Structure formats: structure tokens, C-alpha cells
């Protein structure tokens, strides 16, 4: 497999560190004043996050907890009639197992409970957030569930608020949520629960028919940080052409992580509240002509895995087919192809350059979607090692 990687990619560790040194220290050397936020951690200590997709059956025991600072359990959702966060019997066992296993393996790692997800969709949160009474019910129940199962924080993954009005509702929800979290911490004399959100890669939905922006002021005030989902820019939902799913730069479009991350900073989110998301999966297409493999080449269908391949499957595909692996330095992207299959994903090389760039931008850290897709820990481990910035 390594044999198929272009020679220039086989950077020696020394060269690679020199590159990162350049990115981090020449790119930016301003230091954030470390403020104390009362939650038991310095306000801008690094976040090395990852999401645990509970439905995959992956055992929490198998998680290498030394590689992360925050691990998110995905997902638990509110009841669509009472608006309370509800835990089904099966989930109760799984939640307890998750937090107790993390605690036993690594006392320093924080466990967060993530609410929402792409499958849940936007409608229920729009209803809950629109009304003070349902917001109150939802918030109260979320705190009860988090405490009952031993979590250190809560995460909202509302994908996505659809209108200006829903963005206003989100601002109210976050303001009231944070208020209740502070109050609960004081009343019970415990460290405050963290509050974070997984968001669109950009602070505004500039590609949609309804242009709308996140309530960045309320987000900056009330959230500990934002997990910007810097992926899914292109996938086989557009079957006509292959493309990069998580390009950091893109000279030809605004679909890039740099465009998204900068939009958050421009809108006023402090950089120590911004976390860059990275995918541990690829999107696959079936090429129209196996000889036309460049970015943008015509495609005719989804590729293996119905267009979605966990990182471990991408590695299997490369091995099985002696597939070519191409790193594109201009966009910081990787793709691989063999026969008529073409896959856009993050290799170790593209993921590590992104980690260096996130440090150069002064961001608080990175997170992965999702933990169990990796198979080995090569990306998570190298990312953790390469984050040398002591924010
Ligand atoms: C609530 O969820 C149930 C089960 O998923 C579904 O059958 C029902 O239609 C939903 N009700 C509302 C009001 O959305
Ligand atoms: C707000 O939600 C409550 C139930 O949680 C409901 O009784 C009330 O009618 C709702 N108000 C509005 C304006 O929708
Ligand atoms: C990117 O967005 C800006 C407006 O925000 C627009 O003027 C420009 O044409 C876009 N660039 C591309 C390549 O789509
Ligand atoms: C691809 O190119 C090779 C030689 O370069 C040629 O033999 C083959 O027929 C081409 N395949 C297609 C599908 O055009
Ligand atoms: C690679 O080959 C092995 C052995 O035949 C098979 O089990 C696996 O599913 C293949 N992986 C992919 C991604 O095709
Ligand atoms: C795909 O092409 C490779 C050569 O690149 C070959 O070894 C492999 O057997 C081919 N796989 C299939 C399923 O045709």
C-alpha cells in the first residue's frame, strides 16, 4: 500500500516536524491569554475530540483514551411529544457503560452527551427551541440525564436551523441552557457541565436558498466551543462528478474549511472557541471512464459502501486493489482510485497538514467523526502527537 503513495509524500519524521514547526511558529505565534472559566479547566486548553457512534456496537473498552481530551456519545434525542430528553432502556446500559469505562481507563478524559444528529434532523429542535416552556422542559431533562449517567457536558447537534427565526430560537435556547447549567452547578456544588454544539462548517449558510447566519454572539457567550463540521463538501449525492469532500483550500469554490473557519472568526467567535472537524471516512463514486481520474472527472453512480466508506474500508480498498493514492497539496486533500472506483478521504498526510493549519490559525483543537471508523489509531495518534501548540 505504501508503495503506491507518491515518493514526495514519504516525508521523514524530521522533515514533517520541520514543516509543522514552520506552519505553527512562522504562520502565527500570537498567544491567547489563558482565562479561567470556572469549569475546572483552563478556558483554552486544547480539545482533541472524537465522536463515539453508539449504534455501531463498538466497545468503549476498545477506545484508546490516551489520544483524546473529550469523547462524545452520539446520540440521545428528545421525545417528540413531551420534549424531554429520554433514555431508552438499551441506551441506559450503553450510557452507563460508556462513562464508567472512560472514567476507569482515563480520569482526565471528559465525556459529553451529544443530542441530535443528521438522522434526527431539524424539525423537532425547531419546535422545542421556539417556545419558552418546551425549552425549559428540554433543558431541565438534559441536565438530569447528563448527571444521572455521569457525563461532563452536553452537545447539541441540530442539523440545521432552517430559517432566521430558528436561528433566533437557537440563541434563546443556548442562553437559557447556559444559565441553567451555571445555576445547577452552584446549587449542587459540582463543576459546571460543558456546553458545546456541532455546527455547519461555516457560520452562514451561503449556498442555500435561504441565506441565514448562526447567532454567533449568543454562541460565543454561552458555548464552551463550537465543533465545526468541516466535511461533506462533496459526495455522491451529486453523482455527476467526483470531488473533494473535505478540502482545506479550494481555489475554485467557497466549499473549503478555510472559508468556513474564517467565517466563524470574522463573525466574532473567539478562535479559542473554534474546533475543526475532520472526517474518518471517505465518499466514493463510480467513474464514468476509469481512465479519467482527476478531480472533477465524470462519474455515473455511487461507489462502494453506497458512497460512504469508513477509513478502515478505504485502507482495505487500497490494499485489495493496489489502488493509487494521490495527495493534492493545493487543496490539502487525498483521493484514491482503482478500476472504476474513486474515493475522496483524509489520509494521514492530509489530516496532519490540517492539524498543522488549525494550530497556525490559533484554533482550540480538532475533532473526528467518528471514532470507530478508523480501525487502527494512526490518524488519531499522529494528530495528538502533532498538536504541539500549548494554547
Ligand atoms: C413522534 O415519533 C413517533 C415515533 O418515531 C412517530 O410515529 C410520530 O409520528 C412522531 N410524532 C410527532 C408529533 O412528530
Ligand atoms: C409552548 O409549549 C407548551 C407545551 O410545552 C404548550 O402548552 C404551549 O401551547 C406552547 N406555546 C406556544 C405559543 O406554542
Ligand atoms: C465565493 O463567495 C463570494 C461571496 O461570498 C462570491 O463573490 C464568489 O464568487 C464565490 N466564489 C466562488 C468561486 O464561487
Ligand atoms: C484506458 O487507457 C488504456 C491505455 O492507456 C486503454 O488501453 C484502455 O482501453 C482505456 N480504457 C478506457 C475505458 O477508455
Ligand atoms: C478486501 O479484501 C478482503 C479479503 O478478501 C475482504 O474481506 C474485504 O471486504 C475487502 N475490503 C474492501 C474494502 O473491499
Ligand atoms: C482493479 O485493478 C487492479 C489494478 O489496479 C487489479 O489488481 C484488481 O484486481 C482490479 N479489481 C477488480 C475488482 O477488477
Please render the helix and strand layout as text:
Elements: H1 13-26, E1 47-53, E2 70-76, H2 89-105, E3 110-116, H3 123-129, H4 132-148, E4 153-157, H5 164-188, E5 194-200, H6 216-222, E6 225-229, H7 257-266, E7 274-279, E8 281-287, E9 299-302, E10 308-310, H8 311-321, E11 324-328, E12 333-338, E13 341-345, H9 348-360, E14 365-369, H10 378-386
Parallel strand pairs: 1-2, 1-14, 2-3, 3-4, 4-5, 5-6, 6-7, 7-14
Antiparallel strand pairs: 8-9, 8-10, 8-13, 11-12, 12-13
This protein binds 2-acetamido-2-deoxy-beta-D-glucopyranose (NAG) (6 copies).
Residues 131, 133-134 line the site of one 2-acetamido-2-deoxy-beta-D-glucopyranose.
Q: What's the short version?
A:
By secondary structure, the chain is α/β, with parallel strands linked by helices. Helix content is 33%, strand content 20%.
Helical content band? 25-40%
The largest sheet has its strands arranged as 1-2-3-4-5-6-7-14
User: CATH H-level name... which superfamily?
Assistant: Glycosidases
CATH class: Alpha Beta
> What does the overall shape look like?
globular
Given the structure, what is the number of helices?
10
Average pLDDT, all residues: 91
Low-confidence stretches: 1-18, 20-42
Gyration radius over CA: 21 Å
| Proportion of residues in β-strands | 15-25%
Broad structural category: alpha/beta
- Which molecules are bound in this entry? 2-acetamido-2-deoxy-beta-D-glucopyranose
Number of domains: 1
H-E order: HEEHEHHEHEHEHEEEEHEEEHEH
> What summary fits the major beta sheet?
8 strands, parallel, barrel
Q: How far is the first residue's CA from the last residue's CA?
A: 36 Å
Q: What's the total number of strands?
A: 14
CATH architecture: Alpha-Beta Barrel
